Amino acid sequence: MEKIVQLTLSGIANGAIFALVALGFVLIYKSSDVINFAQGELLLIGAYLTYTTVEMIGLWWPIGVIVAVALAAIIGVLIEQLVLRPLIGEPIISVIMVTIGLSSLLRAIIGGIWGVTPRTAPQFLPRDTITLFGASVSVDRLWAFALALTLFALLSLFFRYSREGIAMRAVADDQQAALSMGISIKKVWAIAWAIAAVTASVGGILLMSIFGGVSGQIARVGLLVFPVVILGGLDSIPGAIVGGLIIGLLQSFAGGYLPPELGMGEVVPFIILLLILLIRPYGLYGQRIIERV
Amino acid sequence: MQSGTFHTSYASDMALRPYWIQRLRIALVLIAVLLFPWFADRYWLNLANMIAIASIGAIGLNILVGYTGQISIGHGGFLAVGAYTAGLMAVRLDMPMWITIPVASCFTALVGAFFGLPSLRLKGLYLAIATLAAQEIIIWLLTHGKLLGIGESLSLPRAANNLFGIPLANLGNNDFAFYWITVGCLILTVIFVSNLFRSRTGRAFVAIRDQDIAAQVIGVDLFRYKLLAFATSSFFAGLAGALTAHYRGIISWERFTIDTSILYLAMIIIGGLGSVSGSIYGAAFMTLLPALLSNLARAVSGLVPDINSYLPYIQQGAFGLAIILFLIFEPEGIVKMWRNVKDYFRLWPFSY
């Protein structure tokens, strides 16, 4: 029982972080049909920027986090303007490859600035343990989950009520119609990348706090985004959240219950990915417009 | 001066290289390839071997991505299958390389066809993501390879490097001897693949790339030809992997991660999609770029003492930047740049 509660909680916390990262991914895909392979590097950028502002410059951590997230948003917009904009309308392989090249470039820049040795990072989330359903769990997971939920709530308010949010939904729904209504698609793309950078860097910061350090390992989560978004449906925001939680839980249980020397936690998401693609390629909530061969 | 295309017979119309200048160029390249190892030192021979092996792998990937239009991010995994099959056969069964390499290539073709199964239902980026899963699953099998009995790395016996019982060491040092093997395999690959796309099968691949539904309407069996494309492509990946295993003598899974898949994709993008010579240019570019950068770093290390510690990042950054710049400014790759150069001289001085 104790193990179940612990695994469930860590699965949910990881899942919420996956969902955050996947949300940015889905936003970019919905607004501009770009598959972003550099999502993992956006996580790293958020984590390392926070490390710099808090640990190296010595800002009070809430301010440090806000500065880091704002910088990440600017980087997101810059990436969109400089790298993705020239490739609009190119074949899919070009778009995939340019984000892959981007991820390599970003990783090189990150490595050049901060090196590859793992750094101990500030832990903002309280680390005491509490007893829940008879199991002792560390509070930071709960906090990570709560913070991710708050960000989701804020974003859904943004999409529902703000002018830009509504414009983004319009573009995702029908690009031609949105254009003819005078919505600036370029602005929508820039906002999509900014939000993706923000959610990814918040995810990176939460992971940094849970791991107690920052290293290239965090970028691995960028690959886990693929099982999450395919499971939830590539173009569905609720799908990203549900998919994130399911993959988080599955990973946690597979790692906890199957023999540890198999390392099943790493591969289970990808086996699921392959199965989903074969059985139901549009995922749980995605639109069924996928072309069948 | 050549002023147009004037074929007077079907044979010349069908020829791969109809003009004397093209044949002259090929002859010159072949002579250079034959003379090169007698003058090069081991450093350059090693680079040449790496380029030849990478070219074979890149041509394989180009069959799938450039000619058949199926994006694959799992090429590194298929290289690993080839390398480990050859390695395990050499270690466990004491087989020589002239048996292990063909067997490993064929086995990789089978594995490739298996992971090509999703292509029957998926295309475009969904297929790309499916091959990404294949890559991760293959690497997981290798890293948790207690089932296969593999440790962290696998050392191949030197004795396996023989051709029909004659040890390769008789030819000279390892780099020199392998030069003939790798370049020989590359030449055979080039001849096979160039001719493949003049055959029924190759044309079916191209038809699938250009418009799969139309291809089906004119009678191309999508099921069969897509799997065949995956198998052919993986065959060459397996060949490249097996050659790497025997050449290096030691293999570990780190050589075949998703970064390798990306490297090969970058080779064919930068070289030119859907072009055999482009694959070779791309492979050479991607192999020479890091070597060039490290030589450059050594040259300026007197001025900038820290440069060696930054070298890996400079190499990785240059790799990413090369992909981005090529995609933005010359999406058709080196092969297009080379064609522009040729056109300039062909039409000179009356280019209009």
Strand-helix topology:
The complex is a heterodimer of chains A (293) and B (352).
Chain A lengths: L1 H31 L6 H19 L3 H24 L7 H23 L4 E2 L8 E4 L2 E4 H23 L1 H11 L1 H6 L4 H27 L1 E2 L5 H13 L4 H21 L6 H16 L14
Antiparallel strand pairs in A: 1-4, 2-3
Chain B lengths: L9 H5 L5 H20 L2 H26 L7 H18 L4 H19 L9 H19 L9 E3 L6 E2 L2 E2 L6 H23 L3 H11 L1 H6 L4 H27 L1 E3 L5 H14 L4 H25 L6 H23 L4 H14 L5
Antiparallel strand pairs in B: 1-4, 2-3
Helix pairs in contact in B: 3-7, 3-8, 3-10, 3-11, 3-12, 4-5, 4-6, 4-10, 5-10, 8-10, 11-12, 12-13
Could you spell the SSE succession of chain B in H and E letters?
HHHHHHEEEHHHHEHHHH
Shape of chain A: globular
Helical region count of chain A?
11
| CATH architecture type of chain B | Orthogonal Bundle
Number of strands of chain A: 4
Structural class of chain A: mainly alpha
Q: Largest sheet of chain A at a glance?
A: 2 strands, antiparallel
- Please state the CA-atom Rg of chain A, rounded to the nearest Å: 19 Å
Q: For this structure, what is the CATH class of chain B?
A: Mainly Alpha
Q: Total strand count of chain B, please?
A: 4
* Number of structural units classed as domains of chain A: 1
Helical amount of chain A: over 70%
Number of helices of chain B: 14
Shape of chain B: globular
Query: First CA to last CA of chain B: what distance?
Result: 15 Å
Low-confidence segments of chain A: none
Question: Which percent band covers the strand fraction of chain A?
Answer: under 5%
How does this model look, in words?
The complex is a heterodimer of chains A (293) and B (352). Chain A is mainly α and 293 residues long. Chain A has a single domain, classed as ABC transporter involved in vitamin B12 uptake, BtuC (Orthogonal Bundle), CATH 1.10.3470. Helix content of chain A is 73%, strand content 4%. Chain A has eleven helices and four strands; from the N terminus they run H-H-H-H-E-E-E-H-H-H-H-E-H-H-H. In chain A, strands 1-4 form a two-stranded antiparallel ribbon. In chain A, strands 2-3 form a two-stranded antiparallel ribbon. In chain A, a hairpin with a 2-residue loop joins strand 2 (129-132) and strand 3. In chain A, helix 9 (220-232) crosses helix 10 (237-257) and helix 10 packs across helix 11 (264-279). Chain B is mostly helical and 352 residues long. Chain B has a single domain (40-347), classed as ABC transporter involved in vitamin B12 uptake, BtuC, CATH 1.10.3470. Chain B is built from 14 helices and four strands. Chain B has helices at 10-14, 20-39, 42-67, 75-92, 97-115, 125-143, 174-196, 200-210, 212-217, 222-248, 258-271, 276-300, 307-329, 334-347, and strands at residues 153-155, 162-163, 166-167, 250-252. In chain B, the strands form two sheets. A two-stranded antiparallel sheet of chain B has the order 1-4. Chain B has a two-stranded antiparallel ribbon with strand order 2-3. In chain B, a hairpin with a 2-residue loop joins strand 2 (162-163) and strand 3. In chain B, helix 4 (75-92) packs parallel to helix 6 (125-143). The two termini of chain B are 15 Å apart. Chains A and B meet through helix 4, helix 9 and helix 11 of A and helix 6, helix 11 and helix 13 of B.
